[in-house]
Amino acid sequence: MATSGWGRPRRRRPSNSPERFAGLVYLISPMANETFFSLQGQVAVVTGAGQGIGEGIAARLGQAGARLAILDINRAAAEEVAGRLKGVGLPCDVSSASSVQQAIEEVHRQLGPVQILVNNAGIAGRTLPLWELEESDLDQVYAVNLKGVFLMCRAVIPGMLAQGYGRILNIASIAGKEGNPTLIPYSSTKAAVIGLTKALAKEVAAKGNITVNAISPAVIRTKILDGIAKETVQYMVSRIPMGRTGTIEEIAALVHFLVSREASFTTGQCYDISGGRATY
Q1: What is the mean pLDDT of the chain?
Q2: Which residue is catalytic, options 26, 186, 235, 271?
Q3: Is the Cβ–Cβ distance between 183 and 160 less than 8 Å?
Q4: Pick the CATH number of 36-273 from 3.40.50.1970, 2.40.50.140, 3.40.190.290, 3.40.50.720
Q5: Smallest Cα–Cα separation from 210: which of 252, 259, 257, 170?
Q6: Most confident of 74-83, 221-230, 236-245
């Protein structure tokens, strides 16, 4: 027997008492027969998935049960990755409205309506100070990094509204929050992706279980770094308190959560995955 704070005997409930665990049972029972973060049967489109981060994200979503559409401007790369991941590989230039529309129509034909869109396709552009850049340098980065996100979202949103369900995840960058020198086109378009994410999330927030989020990675070790000046890469790594680049697997894990059914009350957010670099 235990004693209450007033000195009266108090019966201790048995450790296996239904009353003792009533609250816990209530919390877990809705998911008792499900696997956490399962994407079983959902159609997931990942752009720029012919290599690098996009490929890693697609692999993770496929392992969770998603039916994959691998989109990439490089048809051979898209088909090769899709073959390994048992998905559908399609060529797609995200900067072209007609290419995007054709790709999404083909996804619908082969897999069905889209529940998940990950806008990963992006380019860094030339690493030079602004006064040494040409107008075309900005146009090229804008066309992929921002216009591409706009076109892909526009292509899948009607279907998500019709289903009353959808998950959109845009890959932004810490450069879009803090700005990286000699990467002005990249930094500015990634900042715009964050703004697009927040605005679109508000537009669809009350129109079903549809969420729109972004992530802002710091520098991640991928092939894209090979096309960036060594000094620029060193600068980016030097700003990370953890003192290292991130990994594709770490990015894929965060994306997986944000496109899952469980992330149903999270929208219009930009999640940092920066090894401590981000300050806001």
Answers
A1: 88
A2: 186
A3: no
A4: 3.40.50.720
A5: 259
A6: 74-83
